């Protein structure tokens, strides 16, 4: 089924975001007594801090507070997995975005002027800027620059390779991609006049951030409130704390609200990026194309601090095992190293799409060696829905992988494109597949809760801890609630992202939709019962004749009580229902590895390659998705298309290279993201075979769309030119040189 | 002359910049000279440059598009005269552009984005070696320049070599190029709103071919390739590639792959002007 945009599909807030009218946390410029904060960043990628003298800054006009490491009230460290990053550096800086001091002043201008007169003496240290040699360099933390090494093994790989008729081995490289959200990192910290702090900030997990912030600020958890305000994009880049610690310390010091909003330069310099991965992949199969053996040796550059690097490595390796395909034996290993090259961490796809790029390229390489259709090779290796996952775990697909492949094979994009009169543009079509699991996985604690109540004003109030950063969760929740209660959108208030409300866990790992659906399935029937009980008392009608509908309670097709009347005359506080549930994992007894709820995508790409310059235009993308039931069509479409555009950027233009630990791009005029003119025509198909009785019919699609885009584009480039690109982003110069070499050979 | 001290800009939140607003071009020249500060037209180049460097001038001399001959397009016996403060988007939609430079309107779609084209001026684009500079160079435009010594009209190429910091560009004149065959192409990093890697222009004036390029290696009239091509009877068949490569490499175009693309693009554009398409 093709999911098509419908007229009026765009929700109001989408237009507000596009037109810059949406109210973000960073727009709160008129809070009484508001001060503006600014953060002093390191001038060096790696140095000892010999002296930080703030005396001149403290005397500057308008300056209300200047803080350094000595002023951090609690733990001077942050990090979701490993708390290894100083809030404000004490004696050493490890990347050019490291924070050294922070200033609060009456205006941003004054705060930034004060930063200029903070005297810092550095003793530069050798910069660890090559991931390949990082382990031989002086350690940035502890005893070694090797942060993590992990390996997944299955069967006897050497023996399996020995039986292979065809083996392909290639080196792959993926870029350091930036999230490039519309709204850069920012928010405001507001003292609550009882010694605590309220944060209104763009972030991905209010509850988790509140815990970290309490430790940093030396406060009790109950003294920190985080309101995760709707933000202009996050994509993993706001998973870690950003400006909150500095804003919080300054707010406590001054007793005033402090707003910090990074400009684009500071965001580029300090923000988390996607892990660049360098990997060698070796894959072998028999003469019939059955994959027997697979080996991966990968190196991930995590930068100066761990952030979510270890979890990214795990997900990368999970995807490197080629989860869609039946492989007799594999040996998949990866190392995660510290360098002074910024900080890498969470980013839509979370390491998985880097691995999928290489895996799918390997399949094409095998098919070419066997002179076999790449789709046919995939068909004989795809798992069935009854088979376990690549790591032996029970998995749950929403459609047979071969069905997804068949739909991809039937895509209209395989029809030859009309070529230009001068044959300047070489066209080609290619495809790739990808699998993606929902949830944090690998046995990590993963729970989420929500709440429904009737407000005093007679509104059906839904509360979740998730953040809205453009995916429009509120609309998805509203759709589900309307479907279950028979009410209309106007009856409902959705409140998201308040750490005082229910803890839903982080807005990441494509987990929100799954938990929202599960929690609503639990709380709404109970809420309905409570409301009916109260309505029965108030109306005198039997409970079993009452049902919820638009605007209120109905009996016999007619409204007998409005929600407002119910709230006024009944006991709305008694309608509150809370629930929390564990994220679905494999049934008891199964090993807690990988992820249970699995999604698939096949992306078919058509490209045109300029014979004269080597540049690539992606003209069409056709995605066949198997990701369960669609509960909110605009959200589904937006997630798949939006993620695919990010994949397009990763494939064709986006990278943040470094030299001596310094990023070579500092703004969006140098860091090249796709514009609308670069975005191809896209079609999204939905394949959903989940039965109506399925316990988990809804899956999260926040990351699925990015999974197979890059390998599909490279496959299409190969179809157009005969040249396979294995290092991303695609270098037009490389392609041109190869095209010229081909022409010389032919002539 | 109004001389208000500009307030802190609530949007950019930058330090106050004193914007000098002269009443006449000659006053603009004297202010620029006196304070050694830059002129500002659309500001689309200055703003990101200063933001990147975190180095803002204390003063700017604001130019006024209402000054005579500074804005708009007119044609006369000399050709087509374009005011320097004409915005890129005005240029793109002007009927005289369609008459004199038919491919330019479409090409301008690939210069910056709509917002920048609405503010950015053709004079500013020429002055910083932007996308239009290769076209202007290939067309042998003459620029009208004011400075402390008065007014003068001279070839663009000469002005770019000799210009002084207080030179104020009033406009430029394109020779009557109706009937000439013009082909131009931009190679960027993406389809739109991209820094120029290279913009290549090929013009056939009915007698000779002219070639010019601007971008990563700088603005350059491709003299040797022009000679090579013009000495051959068949424009499309000459192997001009090696000559172009040498010329580009000798003038600072370091990227061998980019030179390779330019060689092939030149061949394509030469075919277009040869065929008249």
UniProtKB/TrEMBL annotation, chain A:
InterPro entries named among the record's database cross-references: Ald_Oxase/Xan_DH_a/b (IPR000674), Ald_Oxase/Xan_DH_a/b_sf (IPR036856), Ald_Oxase/xanthine_DH-like (IPR016208), AldOxase/xan_DH_MoCoBD1 (IPR008274), AldOxase/xan_DH_MoCoBD2 (IPR046867), AldOxase/xan_DH_Mopterin-bd_sf (IPR037165)
Stored Gene3D superfamilies: Aldehyde oxidase/xanthine dehydrogenase, a/b hammerhead, Aldehyde oxidase/xanthine dehydrogenase, molybdopterin binding domain
Ranges where the Aldehyde oxidase/xanthine dehydrogenase a/b hammerhead domain occurs: 19-126
SUPFAM superfamilies in the cross-refs: CO dehydrogenase molybdoprotein N-domain-like (SSF54665), Molybdenum cofactor-binding domain (SSF56003)
Record lineage: Bacteria, Pseudomonadati, Pseudomonadota, Gammaproteobacteria, Pseudomonadales
SMART domains: Ald_Xan_dh_C
Protein's name according to its UniProt entry: Xanthine dehydrogenase, molybdenum binding subunit apoprotein
Source organism per UniProt: Marinobacter salarius
Automatic annotation (TrEMBL), chain B:
Organism, scientific name: Marinobacter salarius
Keyword Oxidoreductase among record annotations: yes
PROSITE patterns named in the record: FAD_PCMH
Key words of the record: FAD, Flavoprotein, Oxidoreductase
A Pfam family hit: FAD_binding_5
Protein name: Carbon-monoxide dehydrogenase medium subunit
Gene3D superfamilies membership: 3.30.465.10
SUPFAM superfamilies, A to Z: FAD-binding/transporter-associated domain-like (SSF56176)
Top-rank lineage group of the source organism: Bacteria
Domain FAD-binding PCMH-type: 12-179
């Amino acid at each position: 089924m093709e999911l098509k945009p419908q007229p009026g599909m765009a929700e109001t807030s989408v237009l507000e975001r596009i037109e810059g009218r949406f109210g973000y946390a960073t727009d709160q410029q008129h809070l009484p007594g508001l001060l503006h904060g600014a953060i002093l960043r390191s001038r060096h990628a790696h140095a000892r801090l010999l002296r930080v003298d703030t005396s001149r800054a403290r005397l500057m006009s308008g300056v209300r507070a200047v803080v350094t490491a000595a002023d951090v009230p609690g733990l001077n460290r942050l990090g979701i997995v490993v708390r290894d990053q100083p809030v404000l550096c004490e004696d050493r800086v490890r990347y050019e975005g490291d924070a050294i001091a922070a200033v609060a002043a009456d205006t941003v201008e004054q705060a930034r002027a004060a930063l200029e007169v903070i005297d810092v003496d550095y003793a530069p240290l050798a910069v660890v800027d090559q991931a390949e040699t990082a382990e031989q360099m002086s350690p940035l933390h502890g005893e070694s620059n090797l942060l993590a090494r992990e390996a997944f093994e299955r069967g006897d790989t050497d023996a399996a390779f020995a039986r292979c008729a065809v083996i392909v081995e290639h080196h792959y490289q993926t870029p350091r991609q930036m999230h490039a959200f519309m709204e850069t990192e920012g928010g405001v910290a507001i003292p609550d006049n009882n010694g605590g702090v309220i944060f209104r900030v763009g972030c991905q997990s209010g509850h988790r951030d509140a815990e970290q912030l309490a430790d940093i600020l030396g406060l009790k958890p109950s003294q920190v409130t985080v309101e995760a305000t709707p933000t202009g994009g996050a994509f993993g880049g706001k998973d870690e704390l950003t400006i909150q610690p500095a804003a919080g310390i300054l707010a406590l010091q001054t007793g005033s609200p402090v707003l910090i909003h990074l400009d684009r330069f500071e965001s580029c310099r300090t923000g988390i990026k996607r892990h660049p991965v360098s990997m060698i992949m070796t894959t072998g199969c028999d003469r019939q194309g059955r994959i027997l053996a697979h080996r991966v040796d990968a190196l991930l550059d995590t930068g100066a601090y761990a952030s979510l690097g270890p979890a990214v490595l795990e997900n990368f390796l999970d995807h490197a095992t080629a989860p869609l395909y039946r492989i007799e034996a594999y040996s998949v290993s990866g190392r995660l190293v510290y360098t002074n090259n910024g900080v890498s961490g969470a980013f839509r796809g979370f390491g998985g799409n880097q691995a999928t790029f290489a895996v799918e390229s390997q399949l094409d390489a095998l098919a070419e060696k066997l002179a076999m259709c790449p789709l046919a090779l995939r068909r004989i290796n795809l798992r069935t829905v009854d088979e376990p996952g690549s790591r032996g775990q029970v998995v749950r697909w929403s459609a047979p992988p071969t069905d997804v492949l068949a739909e991809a094979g039937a895509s209209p994009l395989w029809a030859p494109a009309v070529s230009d009169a001068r044959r300047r543009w070489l066209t080609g079509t290619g495809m790739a597949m990808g699998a993606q699991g929902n949830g944090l996985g690998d046995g990590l604690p993963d729970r989420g809760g929500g709440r429904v109540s009737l407000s005093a004003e007679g509104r059906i109030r839904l509360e979740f801890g998730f953040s809205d950063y453009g995916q429009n969760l509120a609309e998805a929740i509203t759709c589900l609630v309307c479907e279950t209660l028979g009410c209309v959108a106007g009856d409902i208030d959705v409140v998201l992202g308040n750490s005082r409300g229910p803890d839903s866990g982080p807005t990441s790992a494509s987990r929100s939709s799954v938990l929202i659906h599960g929690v609503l399935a639990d709380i709404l029937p109970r809420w309905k019962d409570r409301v009916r009980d109260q309505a029965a008392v108030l109306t005198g009608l039997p409970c079993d004749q009452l049902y919820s509908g638009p605007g209120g309670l109905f009996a016999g097709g007619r409204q007998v009580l409005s929600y407002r009347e119910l709230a006024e005359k009944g006991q709305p506080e008694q309608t509150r229902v809370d629930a929390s549930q564990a994220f679905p994992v494999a049934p008891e007894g199964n090993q807690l590895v990988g992820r249970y709820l699995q999604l698939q995508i096949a992306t078919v790409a058509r490209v045109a390659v300029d014979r004269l310059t080597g540049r690539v235009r992606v003209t069409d993308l056709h995605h066949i998705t198997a990701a369960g039931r669609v509960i909110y069509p605009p959200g589904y479409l937006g997630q798949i298309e939006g993620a695919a555009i990010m994949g397009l950027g990763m494939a064709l233009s986006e990278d943040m290279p470094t030299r001596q630990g310094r990023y070579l791009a500092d703004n969006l005029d140098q860091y090249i993201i796709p514009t609308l003119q670069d975005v191809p025509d896209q079609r999204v198909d939905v394949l959903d075979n989940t039965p109506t009785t399925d316990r988990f019919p809804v899956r999260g699609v926040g990351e699925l769309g990015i999974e197979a885009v890059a390998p599909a584009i490279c496959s299409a480039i190969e179809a157009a030119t005969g040249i396979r690109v294995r290092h991303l982003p695609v270098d037009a110069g490389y392609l041109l040189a190869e095209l010229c070499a081909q022409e010389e050979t032919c002539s | 002359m109004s001389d208000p001290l500009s307030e802190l800009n609530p949007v950019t939140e930058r330090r106050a910049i004193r914007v000098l607003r002269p009443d006449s071009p000659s006053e603009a020249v004297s202010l620029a000279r006196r304070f050694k500060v830059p002129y500002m037209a659309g500001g689309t180049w200055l703003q990101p440059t200063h933001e990147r460097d975190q180095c803002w001038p204390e003063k700017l001399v604001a130019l006024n598009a209402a000054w005579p001959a500074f804005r708009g397009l007119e044609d006369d016996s000399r050709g087509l005269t374009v005011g320097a403060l004409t915005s890129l988007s005005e240029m793109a939609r002007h009927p005289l552009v369609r008459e004199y430079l038919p491919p330019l309107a479409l090409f301008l779609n690939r210069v910056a984005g709509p917002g920048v084209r609405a503010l950015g001026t053709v004079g500013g684009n020429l002055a910083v070696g932007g996308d239009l500079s290769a076209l202007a160079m290939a067309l042998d435009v003459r620029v009208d320049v004011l400075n402390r010594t008065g007014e003068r009209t001279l070839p663009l190429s000469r002005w770019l070599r000799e210009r002084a910091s207080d030179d104020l560009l009033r406009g430029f004149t394109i020779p009557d190029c109706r009937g000439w065959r013009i082909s131009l192409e931009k190679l960027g990093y993406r389809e739109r709103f991209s820094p120029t890697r290279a913009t290549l222009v090929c013009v056939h004036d009915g007698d000779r071919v002219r070639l010019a390029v601007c971008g990563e290696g700088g603005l350059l009239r491709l003299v040797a390739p022009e000679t090579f091509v013009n000495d051959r009877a068949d424009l499309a068949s000459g192997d001009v590639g090696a000559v172009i490569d040498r010329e580009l490499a000798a003038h600072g175009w370091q990227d061998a792959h980019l030179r390779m693309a330019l060689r092939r693009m030149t061949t394509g554009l030469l075919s277009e002007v040869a065929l008249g398409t």
